[in-house]
Design goal:
The protein is α/β, with parallel strands linked by helices and 327 residues long. It is built from eleven helices and 13 strands. α2 packs parallel to α10 and α5 packs across α6.
Amino acid sequence: MDRRDFLKASTLSTAAGVLAMHGLKPAHAQAGETYYMVSFLSGIDYWKDCYRGMQDAAAFLGVEAIYTGTPDYDITSEVRVLEETIAQQPAGIALTVINPEALVAPINSAIEGGIPLVAFDADSPLSKRYSFLGTGNYAAGVMAARYLGPLIGSGKAAVLTVPSQGNLLERTNGFINTLKAEFPDVEVGDDLIIDNENNTTVSATKLSALLQAEPDIKGVFSTNAPAAVGAAQAIREAGMLSDIQHIGFDYDEGTLDLIDRGELGATLAQGTWQMGFWGMMFLYMVKHGNIKSVSDWQAAGISPLPPNVDTGVVVINQSNSQYWRAS
C-alpha cells in the first residue's frame, strides 16, 4: 500500500467513525444531492488532488461532486462562476478564494440563502464561510526559510509570489520574517520580490531579468507551482543550477520531474486531498443537520464548524518524490 492509499484508507476509517457517532451510515444520502467545488485557474494540476479528495468523500457518502471554475486568474470571472453555482441551489459549495475581499458578497449570499459553504486552500476570513481548510501559510513560509536559510548561509534570496493573493502573501511574510530573525546574513529586499502572476512564463521571464541584474543571488523561494517551474527554467538557462538553492511550493508532474533531475532542491506539498475530503464531509454534516455543538448554532449566530483547519505541509525531495506521482 503506497502513501496515498494508506492516507485514504485511514481517513475513510476516521470518517466512518465520525458518521457512526452521529447514527449515520455512508452511501445512503438523498438521490440527486449535488455538491460543487469552485476554483480559479481551473485547468492546473493542483486542484485535481483537491477534487479527488472531494470525490472520494462524495462516493463514501453516496452524493455527487461536481468541479467547476474559471480557467483564468481573474477575480471577476470567479465571482461570476460562484454566483452561477449559487443560482443552481446546490447542497453545498467548497470554494477556493482568488481574492478575500472580492468574494465576501457572494459567499455571504450563499450562506444567507441556506447553502453551506467552506473555503479551502485560499480563504476569505471576513466572509460568513463556515470553515477554512488549508495550509497554515505563514508557518509554511517559516518552514521554507528554515530549509533554505542554512543552505544559503549568506547572500541574497529572491521570492516569486503574488502579493494580492492572501495565502501567498502569508507564505512570503513567514519566509521573510524568519530569515530576518534567524538568518540575518540572508538578504531579501523589496527589489528581490517578484510578482509572478501565477504564471510559469512570467516567472521565467522576470527571474531571468533579475538574475542578470543581481547575479549574486544565492537562493529562490517559489511560493506556487507555476513559479517553481518557471524559476527552474530561468536558473537552468542562466547556467546557475549549482549556484542557487531553490525551494518550491505545491507540486505537479512537472515539479516532480525537476526534483528528480536535480533542478529543484525541494518543494513543500500541501494536504490537498485532505482539503477536498474533509471539506466535503463538513458540507454534508451541515447540510444534514448533524452539527450539535450547541442546541441551535444558527440561532446562536455561530459557525457550526471549526473556523480553521490546518491540513499541513510536507517536504518533497529526491528521497520521497515517487510517492506523489499520479497512480
